[in-house]
Specification:
This protein is mainly alpha-helical. It is built from 15 helices and four strands. 75% of the residues lie in helices and 2% in strands. The strands form two sheets. Strands 1-4 form a two-stranded antiparallel sheet. The chain has a two-stranded antiparallel sheet with strand order 2-3. Helix 6 packs antiparallel against helix 7. The radius of gyration is 21 Å and the shape is globular.
Amino acid sequence: MAAQSLMAPSERRHPALAFLTVAWSWLFLLLLLVFFETWARAAYGVSFLFNGYNLQSIAVSAAMPLLLGLGQTFVIIAGGIDLSVGFVMGFASVVMARTMQTLTPMDAALALGTGLVAAMLAALIPGAINGTLISRLRVPAFIGTLGMYGVARGAGFLTANGTTVPVNNPLLFTLGNGKLLGIPIPVVITILLVLAMHWALSQTRFGQHTYAIGGNRTAAIRAGINIRRHTLMLYLISAGCAGVAGMIYTARFSAGAAQGGEPLLLDSIAAVVIGGASLFGGSGTIIGTVIGALIIAVIQYGLVFINVEPFWQFVAVGIVIIVSVLIDQTRERLTGEVRDAD
């Protein structure tokens, strides 16, 4: 009896419960695919999953929120949040379009290269400001990035004069709509960035420090981690991912739009949370964020595929987000994990 009472909480829990709290997003994605595949075969006599066009559409749809979600993953794991990424993406998109609009008549290749650099610089400036506000001036992440949300939004619309900025550049069109080995180039870029971010988070000291800061900030400070510098880097990474998303947006539509990333903000956060990251910090993976982005994309595309009104997409994704948060909140009870207090 005494030995039983001394057992660790995780040893007294049913292992199936622990497995479900970790792998539920994978299982839910599988369930979605099975549901839409069954519906497609029963209603239309075609395949939903084994269809190249459907898979390509889902991948392209998932790419944009996933790009924002990659940087968001680092920030959330460290216990922060970045509400500015949507309009940072839009601002980068507009700056790139304006730059290319000016230089394309002279040289298309020069215009593309300069536009890409300008977009990244435009994104990193808000990221640096966010990081400085939060790390140096101790402004809460929610407030600091919400303020930058408004600043980047206004700067984007001012740069675009309140409208979209068209670009007629064949190289840009190829970047956004061409294919490499049969895979859309935006998807290829996203895959490469996913691999790089996964390596950085799981295999480097920087990734270990990110988990440490989110798990127990006080312990991280005592361990000698430079919290200020690390926090600044996290928000630069988040802004950099938004910059890449802005580049791809301009390339796909041959135009820059300040509001281009606005609907993607909540999807990027949802992808991270659905993928298993805790909003309290200390947990999360890049692969989980990929699964979360795919779940959102499958829901959105699948509901259109079966002729459900598109407004139900918001309801469905919202329900999944709520379920994700509930699972995160009950994970400690189900698995017996103990969260370190600051």
